[in-house]
Amino acid sequence: MRIVLLGAPGSGKGTQAKKLMADKNIPQVSTGDMLREAVAAGTRFGLKAKSVMEAGNLVPDDVVLGIISERLEQDDAQDGFILDGFPRTRQQALDLEELLDQMGTPLDAAVLMDVDFEILLKRLTGRRTCSLTGKLLNVYFSPQEELDACTAAGGELIQREDDNEQTISNRLDVYRENTEPLIEFYRKRGKLTTVDADGTIDEVYERFAAAL
Ligand code: AMP
């Protein structure tokens, strides 16, 4: 299964991709995660990407394409993948199409995670990661026991650098301008499936799996 996950920041793409990965044993390929790893590793490229990401802007298309094409060549991606956060521009979508054509492995579907704006904002501003377990939590939506369990065990609830209000607002603008048009792009190619991504993680996953 080769799929692209579309949706605004905070629509739950990463969470749902991780669930699908565990369920179907196909890798989640997240350009955001790969870029954050480069930043954390302090590579020359990571240092350049850092300020772009902190401002909520897009890293240049050719850079992201380089990362993706290397990743899709790896063994674990040969039987399928879930692209999370890529493509984000029309150029990236065209590049992906060309890359997959060359590999003879076209995309099966582009799945849009559809969520109301108000919910997006809460998901983004409330998002935290437990420093001990890496578990993704949300101060508005996670059960209080889960939030308390992290801090009681000596962990901290960490907020992503780009989850502050100013950056969030820019990321949503960047999404509207650059990425939202991809919905139409994939609709025209007959590949678009929309999932109502409002609800608990399990409810959304049920709809997502059914849509596939
Ligand atoms: P994400 O974790 O998907 O929200 O991505 C975090 C940040 O990484 C984005 O705000 C961008 O700065 C950068 N990024 C991730 N994926 C891409 C992409 N496909 N194209 C350009 N920039 C990206």
Please give a structural write-up.
It contains ten helices and eight strands. A five-stranded parallel sheet has the order 2-3-1-4-8, sandwiched between helices. Strands 6-5-7 form a three-stranded antiparallel sheet. It has helices at 13-24, 31-41, 44-54, 61-72, 90-103, 117-126, 144-152, 165-179, 181-188, 201-211, and strands at residues 2-6, 28-30, 81-84, 109-114, 127-130, 136-138, 157-158, 192-196. The mean pLDDT is 94. The protein has 212 residues and is α/β, with parallel strands linked by helices. Helix content is 53%, strand content 15%. A hairpin with a 5-residue loop joins strand 5 (127-130) and strand 6 (136-138). Bound molecules: adenosine monophosphate (AMP). The site of adenosine monophosphate (AMP) has 17 residues, from helix 2 and helix 3. The site of adenosine monophosphate has 17 residues, from helix 2 and helix 3.
List keywords for this structure.
single chain, 212 residues, alpha/beta, five-stranded parallel sheet, 10 helices, binds adenosine monophosphate
How many helices? The count is 10
Termini, distance in Å?
Answer: 9 Å
Residues in β-strands, percent: 15-25%
Overall mean pLDDT: 94
Task: Give a brief description.
The chain is an alpha/beta fold and 212 residues long. It has 10 helices and 8 strands.
Q: How is the secondary structure organized here?
A:
Layout: E1 2-6, H1 13-24, E2 28-30, H2 31-41, H3 44-54, H4 61-72, E3 81-84, H5 90-103, E4 109-114, H6 117-126, E5 127-130, E6 136-138, H7 144-152, E7 157-158, H8 165-179, H9 181-188, E8 192-196, H10 201-211
The protein binds adenosine monophosphate (AMP).
